[in-house]
Amino acid sequence: MGVKILLSTDNNPESYALYVDAIRACGAEPTRMYCPAASTEYDGLIVCGGVDVHPARYGEAVDGAVNMDEARDAAEIALVEAFLKAGKPIFGICRGHQLLNVIFGGTLVQHLPNALEHSTVLAGHDIVHEVTAQKGSIAEKLYGESFTVNSWHHQAVQDLADGFFVTLRASDGVIEGYEPEKLPVFGVQWHPERMCCTRKRDDTVDGSAIFEYFIRLCEEKN
C-alpha cells in the first residue's frame, strides 16, 4: 500500500479537490477531511489553506483577521500535536504555514499593509512573485536560490516561532517558508497545489516537486 496522506482542509470542493489531485498525481493516497479527529493512522499530514487563524490563538484581539473558523483551529491544533508526538511529517500550506507557526509560539500579521500585492487575481490566475531561498533549505534544494511562486494571502508570519528558521522570503521581507530545527515539519506561504497538475503554470516553478519531497519524507519516517 502506498503512502497515506491526511489533508486537513476547509469544506470548499473547488479548493480541496486541487490538493487531492496533486497528492494522487504525485503517487500517494490522499484522504481529505474538515475538522478531522486527532488520528495518526496516516503517514503524513498536510494542513491546507483556508480562512484566518483566530488571533486569540496568538494572544491578540481581532484587528484585521477575517472569516475565522474556531472549530477548524481547535481540530487542527489537536491534530498537529498528535502528529508531532508521533514523530510524523507535517507540511503547512498558506493557512497551515501560519497555523504551525502559531502552534509553536509565533504570531501573525493580521492584514499586510500591501495585501493587494500578495492576493490579487489577474485574468483568473493568482499573482506571482519571486522568492529567495536560504542555502541548504528544502526549498533551495528543490528549486534553487531564487524562483517564482504564486501568492494568495492577506496575512503572514510576523514573529517566527522559537526553533524555526526562515527558508524563503519575498522581496518585501514577507516570510514565504520556514523549517523547524530537528523536526519533520515545514511550511510555505504559497500554494503548490495551484502550480501543478492541471494548474501547472509557465510563470512559476512546478508545485509537484514539494509534494513529492513530502511524500518521500513520509516514506522515510514510517
Any overview of this molecule?
The protein is an alpha/beta fold. The protein has a single domain (4-221), classed as Class I glutamine amidotransferase (GATase) domain (Rossmann fold), CATH 3.40.50.880. Helices cover 28% and strands 25% of the residues. It is built from 6 helices and 12 strands. It has helices at residues 13-25, 70-86, 95-103, 116-119, 138-143, 208-221; strands spanning 4-8, 29-33, 44-47, 90-93, 108-109, 121-122, 125-133, 146-151, 156-157, 164-170, 175-180, 185-188. Strand 11 (175-180) and strand 12 (185-188) form a beta hairpin. The chain is globular and about 40 Å long.
Any chance you could write out the topology, listing elements then pairs?
Layout: E1 4-8, H1 13-25, E2 29-33, E3 44-47, H2 70-86, E4 90-93, H3 95-103, E5 108-109, H4 116-119, E6 121-122, E7 125-133, H5 138-143, E8 146-151, E9 156-157, E10 164-170, E11 175-180, E12 185-188, H6 208-221
Parallel strand pairs: 1-2, 1-3, 3-4, 4-12
Antiparallel strand pairs: 5-9, 6-7, 7-8, 7-10, 10-11, 11-12
Short description:
The chain has 222 residues and is α/β, with parallel strands linked by helices.
Rg is 16 Å
Taken from the alpha-carbon principal axes, the silhouette is globular
Integer average pLDDT: 96
**How is the main sheet built?**
10 strands, mixed
β-strand amount: 25-35%
- Using the coordinates above, name the CATH class: Alpha Beta
Number of helices: 6
Q: Identify low-pLDDT runs.
A: none
Task: Please name the CATH topology.
Answer: Rossmann fold
What is the total tally of β strands?
12
Class inferred from helices and paired strands: alpha/beta
Distance between the termini: 13 Å
